[in-house]
Amino acid sequence: MTKISEFLKTRGFGYYVTLPAAIFAVAAALSYEKTGVTEFSPNLDGMVATACYVGAALFLVSFVLDYKPVRYAGYLAVLFAFMKYVATQVTYIANVLVSIDATTISDGMKRTMLFFGAAILLGLIGAITSHAGQKKEESV
Amino acid sequence: MKKKRRSGLWEALSVLLASLLVIVWVGSEIAVSQSAAINNALNVEGAQVSRSDDEAYQYFTRDYSDAEALEAAYLALCEEAESEGIVLLRNENNALPLQGEESVSLFLMGSVKFNYSASGSSAADTSGYASLKDALEKKGLKVNSALWDFYSGQSDYGRTTKGKNYLVNEVPYGQIPAEVSATFSDFGTAIVTIARDSGEGKDINANKSDTVDGSYLTISDQEKEVLENLTALKKDGVIRKIIVLLNSSATLQMDFLQMEGIDVDACLWVGNVGKSGIHAVASVLTGAVNPSGRLSDTLLFDNCSSPAMAYQSLNGKAKNFQQYYTDWEEEALNETQTYYGVYAEGIYVGYRYYETRYTDYVEGRKGAEDYSYATDVAFPFGYGLSYTAFSYSDFSTNLSEDGETIEVTVKVTNEGTAQSGKESVLVWLQKPYTAYDEEKGVEKSAVELVGFAKTKVLSPGESETVTIPVERSRFKSYDANGYKTYIVEAGEYLIGVAKDAHEAANSFLAYKGTTASSSGGKMDEEGRKDLVTALSESSLDLRYGVSAETGKEITNQLDFADINRYEGIEDVTLTYVSRRDWKGTWPSALVELTIDTDVMRTDLSSLKAIPDDGLAMPVYGAEGEMTIAKLRGKAYDDEAWDALLDQMSFAEQAYLVTNAQFTTVAVESVAKPETKEDDGPIGVVSSTRSLSMPCEGIWASTYNTELITRIGDILAEDALEAGKSGLYAGGVNIHRTPFGGRSAEYFSEDPFLSGICSQAEIMGMQAKGVIAHVKHLAFNDEESQRNGICIWLNEQEAREIMLLPFEYSMSKSRGNAHAVMTGFNRVGTDWAGANRNLLVNIIRDEWNFEGYCITDMASSNGAIYMTYQDGIPRGTDCYLGSGSATALDEFKDNASFAAHVREASHRILYNVANYSAVMNGLSDGSSVQTSTPWWMTTLETVKTVLAVLTGLAVLMYALSFRKSKQ
Question: pTM score, two decimals?
Fold first, then answer.
């Protein structure tokens, strides 16, 4: 226990936000799989979830391989997943914006967007900031 | 340190550029998927076309090349249409016309937020439109500025919406400051504008509004309060008169005219007035124009009194139109499968119900014993007052030699002494309701509009003899249960002229010998039997069971949409309202439906199997020099069209058919230019000067087809000015209930009036080379859950009421519209764009429609059920959506499917070649070169640049990091 707490004391801010980033990425994928099919988009795009899972995996790998490019790759994967998600929902979003049918953004979409936003933001912060504490040198 | 900082900068740049690259890369995919919408928004030309200036190749001409001149003509016509369509409903105590420099106070938020247009496909930018105050002052009236300023400053009040519900949100009377109230005596003519919004996408709420009974179409407590206070002020002599303007395309409930404490002197229905129609309102108020409009809808004291609304009122407090299959969850139905609507009323829509029930009540028919017409109807269909009075005399009829036309003649005299004016003459028909009808469920309305005409302006004392042709085919009724076709039964058919539907009902009763006294007081007015004649049919006539257009037999095509006849529904019976027993058949319970059978499950599903029609695989890419310009004037089935189609590739045909969102794409191989289309029925949305017409109900209320043709003409001119050669107009669904959301874009509750008006509009529009895309086929009379809602109705109502306007619009010998837009809704369980009975058997085989069928917004609202697989083999020719050349690749090896794609392409090319102004300048030698839109090129360039920069930044980051380590 002491060793763990000692270890954790040596970790930087980036270390602590990367795990939540991974969790949110997985949550975004799961939320998309549950709510992504609508009257506007009849099929799920497998690329969305895949990219989320890849991003989450890269975040987790970065705990072991403390390389910034790994974390950046994870962030970019989740960003890519988000953009692909928007692509699948663009006609739904357009219908909301045109506001003829009084369609509103569903709770499912709001939730998915929130998870994506959190995963991207935390992933980027985790990638930029150091996983190692100030005493230990950053490795590439 | 410096090196570390430099490394950090390259790191930041790499991340930024990589992020941008991801966003732009996927973003450009999104943009390409929406290319049709983007091209439309940016007005991008998709092709270079070589055009000739030679006069010989200018197939369609414009009257206005100058935008200002066009606008002036448009505004003049808008004002003319409004002035002829305004209906004067009440005029007591010499309230109207207003005299000289009368001083007026304008009440309610509707005065300052006047209703010019509707939302959705007919939306217009009304920000620069003249106000009611401006219009009245222009006519010399003095307007109470203090009151106007008060209402103008009420930013928290005015019509609004909350979710799907409209709210009135009127200013309470008590908030009018004392210093403003003190001005009323100086501006003693009170004009009260009751305005209501409506538009695409949602029906008007029959409940959950802030009105006296929750219906948006009833007055609110605050509006009532204003009218009560004004009435009290009138009693005290502060206010001299109260005039109400009904500023709504939807029919307001008129019970406020009977409310205690409210005393209105004059009332006019003005509809939505368009860009310049407000000046017509002022003209009518001041007597510069004598109102000549007659109602195109019945105005009611109770908007829920019709059988359609009686049924809808059973659907919970909200009185929603839509019901849902009760087992939708177990069946895992999606949003586009879950809902249905039931048309339990049969043919008894609008006045057909009220006048027939009244007639049966007077005649003592079973089930009509207790009926109070006066409780339901405020102003009958066709009603309209004038500032003068017209009399009718010398009525006669004459049957044409071929027996197919009855010429109805009547002399109209302006009996007034001061005012000139026009009079609309309406011709009515009563068919015999026989024992056979009762047995076989053939319903017959006691009165039906079958002809109309408008006089010229008649001076006081002047007369005009009007002759109105009535087609004998109007005698037919659809017998869905017996002969399964149109029949004209033996019996006595009464034809007469009357000023409105109720007068017609009374005149027919009078002709048959009924008087107010002989009916025991049931008959509320003596009719004019001198304006009626009888024509006898000696025997059953089935000639209308064969199409006059094509010679094909007409028989039941819509059994699948009738709950009682559809094989997929078991153990459920819908009792349609019938005059054989009004009370016994009156809606008393909702019809609850479940998905009980595999048949229904399959029918509701999408991506149905492609029918094997045994068609041969088409030829593609053949050598040849056919162009669509060369085939102008050739018949649709000319062999030359085959040679032309053979030149096309499958990809070209796929792109043409799938990418028709406000366009039909250019096709290089046959030199077809790109066309551009736009919404909507009461104005071109992309109008360069934000021009808009009054609502279609006002056009119909003019009863002036010549005027409506000129409206079609000017709409076409405005479309051409905006660079469009097609208009998604006219709207010809029916005002089935007052709560239909798109009342502004449809003509009337009456199908004949709707059909004749639409015909007139199409004639004007298409003469200029602007293709009319009549909409929405079919039974899309409500907006609620329009995406996929199943409409259940019987065939008689379908043919005689809902489809008749389409038949008149689309039949080759009538309106000959060159395109039709299908609805979002289902007919029974089939999406309207995927049913051969409707899209082939009826519209092509019976009506000889040669235009093309386009979907409604497929790629957004309908992606899950408005599929290529379902629509193309079953009658849809193109999709209002963003498609692509590869969109149909999965079907290219299916010969039947490919053949249907080819035929769909044929229809589009044929109609564009012959009827679109886009062909102007195209000679036999013209060429079309498709091009990539500039925005696509820009995106590709940006992508490439970003990729290169990202690569460089990453490289520099790696190098700088290594250096910083060293």
Answer: 0.94
